[in-house]
Amino acid sequence: MTTQRIHVPGDAAALSVGADRVADAIDAEIAARGLDATIVRTGSRGLFWLEPLVEIDFGDGRIGFGPFDVGDARALFDAPEHHPRRLGKVEELAYLKSQQRLTFARCGVTDSLSLDDYAFCGGLKGLHRALEMAPGEIVDVVTESGLRGRGGAGFPTGIKWRTVAGAEADQKYIVCNADEGDSGTFADRMLMEGDPFLLIEGMVVAGLAVGATKGFVYLRSEYPHAFRQLGRAVAVARIGKLLGNDVLGSGREFDIEVRLGAGAYICGEETSLLESLEGKRGQVRFKPPLPAIEGLFGRPTVVNNVLSLAAVPTILAEGAAFYRDVGMGRSRGTMAIQLAGNVKHGGLIERAFGLTLRDIVDDYGGGTLSGRPVRAVQVGGPLGAYWPRELFDTPFDYEAFAAKGGMIGHGGVVVFDDSVDLACQARFAMEFCAHESCGKCTPCRVGATRGVETIDKIIRGEHAAGNIDLMRDLCEVMRDGSLCALGGLAPMPVLSALDYFPEDFVRDASVAAE
Amino acid sequence: MTPVDRAQAATPLDLALIRGIAEELKPLDGALLPILHAINDRFGYVDERAVPVVAEVLNLSRAEVHGVVTFYHDFRRAPPGRHVVKLCRAEACQSVGADKLFAEVEAACGDDGKVTVEPVFCLGNCALGPAALIDGNLHGRIDCAAVRDLVRT
User: Fold this and answer.
1) 3-state SS string for A72-115
2) Is A312 in CB contact (< 8 Å) with chain B?
3) Is the CB of B32 less than 8 angstroms away from the CB of A182?
4) Inter-chain contact A282–B71, Cβ cutoff 8 Å?
5) Record: contact B128-A51, CB cut-off 8 A
6) How far B120 CA sits from the closest chain A CA (Å)?
7) pLDDT tens-digit profile of A73-84?
8) pLDDT tens digits, residue range A305-345?
C-alpha cells in the first residue's frame, strides 16, 4: 500500500490562522498511531474562510476538511467519513468548481517545492515547447494570445516583449514586478508561495524570447514568507536545471535573483521599481525612454507582473488560440479576481473576464462578514473607484470598468458594509497618496497633502460646497498633471466617493461653528 | 533627546560588523538595498553612524545613502522594542475594523518601549483581516487580546 498523503497548506494566509499548528497536530497523530502517512505542504486553494483546509485522497478524489482546528486531528483518523469539518470533494465545492483555473491549476494541489510534482502536473510543457522555437516565434505566440499585463495597466505583453527583443544590447533583463501593494490583492503572493515554479518557468520563457539571461524578482518586504519560499524554489530550480547555464539541457542560460523591496508602495510603479533595484530612492523616471529600451542599469528590460509571466507557460503549452478564446472583448484569457475585505467568503476567483460584480460579491462572496448590507466595493486597489450596488452589473473587463470611470487594476475587490463612511475613505486615499508619494512631481507631492486638508474641511462642515468644488478641481490637476499613476489615479477613489456617495460629504455645519 | 540621539548615546555600535556586511554584499548589482536590509535585520534599525561606512564601501556620497535610508519605510532610524507588531491599516482591513484595532493595540502596548507598533499597508491577507505581522509571523482575524498574548514575554 502506498503512503497516505495528507495535504496541509503552507500558504501564508493559511499559516496566519494556524496551518502549522494543524500540521503538527496531524503529524503527532500519525506518529502516535504508527500510520504510513505523510504530510505534504501545498499552496492554498484560495478559499480562505475554509483555511486551514486539510485534504486527503481516500481513493476517489480529494476530500476537504476545514476550517481545521488542532482539536480536529484525532477524529480525522477515527472516523473521517463523519468528521465534523468534512466538506466533501474539494473540486466539487461550488466556489471552486465554477472557476477556470489556468494559472492557479496547481496552487493548493501539488507540493509547492517539488519540481517532480510540478512536471507531473503539466509544468515545464510550455518551456519545452519554447526551447524548440525561435525567439520571434515565442513573441508571436504571446502576442497572438492577447495577454495583457496583469499588474493593472493592461498593456499587451507581446508588444512589450517585441520591443525588448528588437533592442541591441550586451545584456538584457527580465524583471518580475512582485511588489503587490494594492490592498485587497494577494494572487501574486499565493502563486509565489503555492506554485513558484510556474513563475520561474514564465521568466525563463521570457528570457528565451527576448534574449535575456538574467532575471530579478522584486518582491515586497511585507511578504517575508513568500521571500523564503521563492528563495527555496530558486535553489530547487537550479538543482533541477530549470535555471542555470544549461536550462533543461538546452545549452541556454538563465538565472534569477530575488530582491526585497523596503516598504514603498510607489516601487510597484515600474520605473520606480527599477530605480530601487539599482539601489536608489524609488523615484519615478520620466518616460521616454521606455524600460524596454533603457531599463535596469540602462539595459533593455521586460518588466512584467507575476501573473503575466505565470500565464506564459500555459499559453506556450496550449497555444495562443486556447488562451485567446477565453474572455470577452479585448480582455482575453482568465483574470485572478481577489475578493476581500468585509465579505463572508473571501478568496481567489480565477475565471474568464466578463463576470459581473454582482456574481463576484453576492454569489461567490455570500454577502458581508458582518451580516450587514453591502454598501460599496473598491475595485483595483487604493487608487480604484468606490462603487455602489447600482454599478454591480458591470462585467469584469478592462474596457467596461474604464467606461464607467473605474479600473480593474490587479483584480482586487474590497467589500464594505453600510457602516463605511465614504468621506473618510476619500480622505484615506489622499492620505495614502501623500504618505507614499515619491516626491518627484508637484501635483502628487503637494496635491495629496492639500487634498487631505480640503477633505478635512469638508468633513468639519466648513464651506462644504466651495471645498467640494475645490476638491474636484484639485483632482483634475492631479489626474492630468502627475508623472505616474499614483498621483494620476488617487483622484479616482475620491471622485467616485463624491459622485456616488454625496450624502457622506454633507456634514453638520454646527461642528465648524463650534 | 530624539530617538536617534538616544540610540547613539545608549549603544556602542559594531562598525566593523557593518563594514563586513557591506563588503560581503558589495558585489551584488545595486547592492545598497540588500546591505541596508542586512543591517536593519541584524541591528533592528539603521544607525546614523552606519551611513558613512556604507557610503565609503560603495563609493557613494553620504547624502546618497542617507537619501535611500530615509526614503523607505522599512529602515528604522532607532532600535525597535523587543516585539515588533505591524498592523495592517489598508482598505481591506479597514473594512473589518483595523482603525479601531490599531488604536486599541497602541493603547494596550504602545507606550512601554517593549513593543513597537507600526502601521503597514497590506500584508496580502485581505480575506482574513484584520491582519498583522508580529515578529515576522503573519496573523489573520486578529484582535487586541490575541496581539497582547503574542507580545507578553
Assistant:
1) HHHHHHHCHHHCCCEEEEHHHCHHHHCCCCCCCCCCCCCECCCH
2) no
3) no
4) yes
5) yes
6) 8
7) 999 999 999 999
8) 999 999 999 999 999 999 999 988 888 999 999 999 999 99
Query: What does pTM read for this prediction?
Result: 0.96
Domain boundary among B23, B48, B71: B71
Enter the C-alpha cell of residue A19: 496551518
What is the predicted ipTM?
A: 0.95
| Cβ partners under 8 Å of residue A233, min gap 6 | A112, A113, A196, A197, A200
CATH of the domain at B134: 3.40.30.10
Q: Closest by alpha carbon to A108, among A24, A49, A184, A191? A: A191
Domains of chain A, earliest start first: 4-97 (3.40.30.10), 115-324 (3.40.50.11540), 327-417 (3.10.20.600), 422-513 (1.20.1440.230)
Measure Cα distances from B44 to A435, A448, B138, B147 in Å: 23, 31, 19, 20
* DSSP sequence for A351-402: EETT-BHHIIIIIIT-S-SSSSPEEEEEESSTTSPEE-GGGTT-BS-HHHHH
Three-state DSSP class for B102? helix
Q: How close A265 gets to chain B, by Cα (Å)?
A: 8
Q: What is the helix (H) or strand (E) element at residue B119, kind and residue range?
A: strand B115-120
Task: State the amino acid at position A33 in one-letter form.
Answer: R
Classify residue B76: in a domain, yes or no: no
User: What are the grid coordinates assigned to A276, written together?
Assistant: 530601487
In this structure, which amino acid lies at residue A388?
P
